[in-house]
Design a protein that fits this description.
Number of helices: 10
Helix content: 25-40%
Order of helices and strands: EEHEHEHHEEHHHHHEEEEHEEE
Number of strands: 13
Largest sheet: 6 strands, mixed
CATH superfamily of the largest domain: Metallo-dependent phosphatases
Structural class: alpha/beta
Organism: Suttonella indologenes
Strand content: 15-25%
GO molecular function: bis(5'-nucleosyl)-tetraphosphatase (asymmetrical) activity; phosphatase activity
Strand order of the largest sheet: 4-3-2-11-12-13
Pfam family, one: Metallophos
Distance between the termini: 39 Å
Shape: globular
InterPro entries: Ap4A_hydrolase, Calcineurin-like_PHP, Metallo-depent_PP-like
EC number: 3.6.1.17
């Protein structure tokens, strides 16, 4: 029986942000954190990953294989991110050319990458489908994108495996979408704008029906809501995650008033304020990269955009000079460690 919640061990933790296939960055971060090659730590610390281990980077297969070994030995834990869920439901999104052949031509900007062997896919998907969406203990909660109690209750009330529950909610979502007054307009927008939607240099017009579609997708499947976050309609289209979008992320943490701290990934935080990305995520986070946020200043996003290291490879920027970082939040110390060896205390 699938359980969306699992319990964190009562040990000091190192909570690692979205890795996105960047094996070299992960190896470097683990070195500075003091971990052995097998994922164990001489002081008994444990690793926790906030999801999105795969896609965009050069070696997603190596990261998933290493993590599975460390997890099965009891040294590492994870929550599923939206990129793992895309893999499980065979939704071939931007950056997944290492896994889905149909993405390889479109994803050439991320290459070269190591391709997942066909013979290993079934076992990988079976194992990933057992991983939780939530990790928690009395003093800490971890989810990839959004802590939403109503969505959690919906998932817990459903029956079956993770994928069976996902498909159950998607069936309800599809029925809602196809009966909506804007559905025909959505199909028309997608057909007319097909050549523009993944072109960052294009500038599509307003997409009201596509906005309604994305809004429904973000809110009506509770599994997707936890792993992608809920959204709201944006004032104008913007390019992010490999496509033009008509909805933007919503800062749910401004409504979170419970005392237990939450650590998340997903939101592509920036360490240097001067490097703020030109998309909506930049407006969700405090300008200080080491600041907690939310109504009680007890939510922390540990994703520092290492998934954009492919840009460094295109420009010839070496990893130690990159503005895109892989980070771990040491807990309960509340100190950040980066893959270049830098450390920083967090602040509330």
């Amino acid at each position: 029986m699938y359980s969306l919640r699992q319990t964190l061990p009562d040990t000091p933790l190192d909570i690692v942000g979205d890795v996105h296939g960047e094996w070299q960055a992960l190896e470097s971060l683990l070195h500075y954190l003091g971990y052995r090659e097998n994922g164990s730590h001489p002081q008994g610390r444990r690793l926790v990953f906030v999801g999105d281990l795969c896609d965009r980077g050069q070696n997603s297969p190596a990261i998933l294989e290493w993590f599975k070994s460390a997890h099965d030995a009891g040294w590492a834990y994870m929550v599923l991110g939206n990129h793992e869920l895309n893999l499980l439901v065979h939704d071939a999104k931007d950056g997944s050319g290492w896994y889905f052949a149909e993405r390889r031509q479109k994803d050439q900007k991320y290459s070269p990458w190591h391709v997942q062997a066909e013979g290993g896919k079934a076992a990988l998907e079976g194992w990933l489908s057992q991983q939780p969406l939530l990790l928690e203990r009395a003093d800490l909660r971890i989810v990839h994108a959004a802590w939403l109690p109503e969505s959690m209750a919906q998932i817990e009330q459903a029956e079956g495996s993770l994928l069976e529950r996902y498909r159950y909610f998607d069936k309800f979502l599809l029925k809602h979408i196809q009966s909506a007054s804007w559905y025909d307009d959505y199909l028309r927008e997608q057909e007319i704008l097909a050549d523009m939607l993944e072109n960052p240099h294009a500038s599509p017009p307003m997409m009201p029906a596509s906005a309604e579609y994305d809004l429904a997708r973000s809110r009506l499947n509770p599994i997707r809501a936890l792993s992608c976050g809920v959204e709201k309609i944006s004032d104008k289209p913007f390019f992010a995650g490999g496509r033009w979008r008509a909805t933007e992320r919503f800062a749910w943490w401004n409504d979170y008033v419970e005392p237990t701290p939450i650590v998340i990934g997903h939101y592509w935080r920036n360490w240097y304020p001067k490097k703020v990305a030109k998309n909506e995520s930049a407006h969700l986070m405090p300008p200080q990269g080491n600041a907690w946020h939310g109504a009680r200043k007890n939510v922390f996003c540990v994703d520092f955009s290492v998934g954009a290291r492919w840009r460094d490879r295109q420009s010839g920027t070496p990893p130690h000079q990159s503005s895109f970082r892989l980070a771990a939040l040491r807990f309960p110390e509340q100190v950040l460690m980066f893959d270049n060896g830098d450390m920083a205390a967090t602040v509330r």
